[in-house]
Known about the structure:
By secondary structure, this protein is mostly helical. It has helices spanning 10-20, 22-25, 45-48, 61-77, 89-103, 141-148, 155-162, 177-187, 190-199, 210-218, 220-225, and strands at residues 33-35, 80-82, 109-112, 126-129.
Amino acid sequence: MRNSRGEPVGALSTFLKTLLRLDTDIPGATHIIIAMDASRSDLLRRELFPEYKAQRLETGEDLRMQLSKAQEACQAFGWETRAKIGYEADDLIHTYTQAALNASPDAFVHIVSSDKDLMQLVGPRVWVHDDPKKPSLAMDEASAEEKFQVKPCQIADFLALVGDASDNLPGVPSIGSKRAIILLQKFKTLQGVLEAAKDGSLAEEKGVGKAAVQKLVDNEELAHKM
């Protein structure tokens, strides 16, 4: 989509429409913070895993232009934006979510994003609106668990096991989604799964297999980096 001057505005239009609907989709909101990525080249996560998001192309000029205009629009509407060198938008969302919950027992947080990493924040006072076509619908603990087959607090461990192609994270070889779900339902956490692999108790579980157990032992350090 382009405006009458031939400037790209498709992403900008979608972004602004989403924000302008917030009063309707999330009535009663008292604070709005828009988190943005600062720079992909300076991410601290790459110190742990240099290949993190290495497959992604640099932001094109059309999108870069729209991001700049999006920041200008946010300022015009009085919406606060946040970005920090070395960190991504989801890092900031995590930080502000915890800050809000810690500030008051009456605080509730609504996160508007389709980033599945943020599902790990879902809790009694946190909801994620992840469907841009149905922004008024929010994922709570029950719906998040139904979707991923693990609890929200286990999603980070789940992704560490299976990997995330969109972020160029390989996960543990031979551990697919079904196997990761079985392991986390039984051993609860990534650390619990790894300890079970090392002490031999995991080898007794049906549907795991000796090869998968050995892969977990051999890739313990990689799994922790994920």
